[in-house]
Amino acid sequence: MFVSGLAPVNPETGGYDILPIDQQARRVLEHLKSCLEAAGSSLDRVIKCNVYCCNPSYFAAINTVYTEYFGPSNPAHLHLHGGLVRPVRYGDRLHCTCQLRRPGCLSIGSHATRWLR
């Protein structure tokens, strides 16, 4: 499964609110969680997320929220920011895509990098 195009849209209004980056990250991850649950999946099956952000100074705040949602599994994530990403809507500074592992497939998580060095 691949989930794409998640932005910090207000689920009640469909609009974009001006929010601090940590609240935008929570909103995006709540959207991700809802999409996965609607498809019969969950956050614990995510193997990778790409986070597109307009400002590298937001990395720490986004990473803190990311860890709150994914806990110890903390799947691989790539942060793209700076000149590569720009806000396209009012206050829209963050987008997310993710990939999931299929049922029955082994997921070795972020610890694999230790074994591959």
Description:
By secondary structure, the protein is an alpha+beta fold. The protein has a single domain (2-116), classed as 60s Ribosomal Protein L30, Chain: A (2-Layer Sandwich). It has helices spanning 21-38, 59-70, 112-116, and strands at 2-6, 46-53, 76-80, 94-100. It has a four-stranded mixed beta sheet, with helices on one face. Strand 2, helix 2 (59-70) and strand 3 (76-80) form a beta-alpha-beta unit. Helix 1 (21-38) packs parallel to helix 2 (59-70). The protein is globular. Residues 105-117 have low confidence and may be disordered.
Q: What is the share of helical residues? A: 25-40%
CATH superfamily: RutC-like
What is the terminal-to-terminal distance?
Answer: 29 Å
- What would you call the quaternary organization? single chain
Using the CA coordinates, give the radius of gyration: 14 Å
What best-fitting shape do the alpha-carbon axes yield?
A: globular
Low-confidence stretches: 105-117
Instruction: Describe the main β-sheet briefly.
Output: 4 strands, mixed
Query: What strand line-up does the widest sheet have?
Result: 1-4-2-3
H/E element string?
EHEHEEH
Task: Quote the average pLDDT.
Answer: 75
Beta-strand percent range: 15-25%
CATH topology: 60s Ribosomal Protein L30, Chain: A
Number of helices: 3
Quick one: how many beta strands? 4
In CATH, the architecture is 2-Layer Sandwich
CATH class descriptor name? Alpha Beta
What is the total domain count?
1
